[in-house]
């Protein structure tokens, strides 16, 4: 019985196997080949937060695999009125073959996995966004032909994206540098994991982090659930934590730029850099579909 809760507990060889499967499924999709690998299976997609990409790519991906996806808005479920996760997990396990959940606390995802008897996929928590990072790694490998030996840099909030990118990059042999302001560093548990790697650094200065980077990523200054801190965060991040032309000049001349989206142009990234790398960014968004099909198939396939 396997779950996909964070990349911390996903072995490196399984990450690579799922990326290979994602590439295969992408090729099949491009050729119009849709094999019903998950025929007659059902997956529940629980959302406590907004979503465009995650919802649509999971629903379409499940249908393309022959499965039936149920969109479950937590606000209209009993879990949204306080029904315990232990009970929700045991009930849903009797109807469904898998659960994807997007929520606030990582503990809720872990709880579904602990008390249920079907695979659980983390579709974003405040702690991690592992599905997004699988798509990011797929996009980098497609465009650069490899992962190991490249350098990834992340600029901005040490949030769910930064946490998951750090683990995904280091486990696949990439060097990783992040520049995050004091008070907005990545999660201590993830830092502890990363500090065992020589090719890891977490600094304050973005110019230092992007030096010779092959891939640069950023994310919003205030994530979902942090709307009330937006102004305070703006004052901390503005003027320094932005992917712009001056920052790009420090990176490798062929550096890619990725963004999980939605992006705030003029905040964490300039319009100019965003549009110059739009092909990469929208390929990254497309790869959510292929990467998540690989995750569903790995967890829910016979
Ligand atoms: N990147 C991402 O997860 O997008 P959504 O919030 O639209 O799902
Ligand atoms: N860090 C962002 C990612 C959105 C896909 C958030 O959690 O809102």
From the structure above, extract its key features:
alpha/beta; 2 domains; four-stranded parallel β-sheet; 9 strands; 14% strand; binds phosphoric acid mono(formamide)ester; binds norvaline
Helix content: 40-55%
Estimated structural class = alpha/beta
Q: Which architecture of the largest domain would the CATH scheme give at its second level?
A: 3-Layer(aba) Sandwich
Report the end-to-end length measured between terminal Cα atoms: 12 Å
Multimer state: single chain
Strand order in space, largest sheet: 7-6-5-8-9
Question: What's the total count of β strands?
Answer: 9
Bound molecules: phosphoric acid mono(formamide)ester, norvaline
- Catalogue the unreliable spans: none
Instruction: Return the CATH class of the largest domain.
Output: Alpha Beta
> How many domains comprise the coordinates?
2
- Radius of gyration, in Å, reads 19 Å
Number of helices: 12
What's the CATH H-level homologous superfamily of the largest domain? Aspartate/ornithine carbamoyltransferase
Shape: globular
**H/E order of the elements?**
HEHEHEHEHEHEHEHEHHEHH
Q: How would you state the average pLDDT, rounded?
A: 98
Binding site for L-ornithine: 160, 219, 223-224
InterPro entries: Asp/Orn_carbamoyltranf_P-bd, Asp/Orn_carbamoylTrfase, Asp/Orn_carbamoylTrfase_sf, Asp_carbamoyltransf_Asp/Orn-bd, Orn/put_carbamltrans, OTCase_ArgI
EC number: 2.1.3.3
Main location: cytoplasm
